[in-house]
Amino acid sequence: MHYLITKGIMLNLEQALEALMGYNVIFFGEEHDSRVAHERELTLLAEFEGRDSSIVLALEMFERDVQDALNAYIEGTIPEDNFLKVARPWPNYRKDYRPLVELAKARGIPVIAANVPRRTAAAVAMADEISSDVAGKDSIYLPPNLHLDSEEYYERFVAMMKKMPDTAPMKGLNTEALYKAQVLKDAVMAYSLEPFLHHRIFFCCGRFHSEYHLGIPYQLRKTHPDLKVAVVVCAESVMGVPMKNRSRIADFIWIEE
Question: Per-domain residue ranges for the chain?
Answer without folding.
Answer: 1-22+39-55
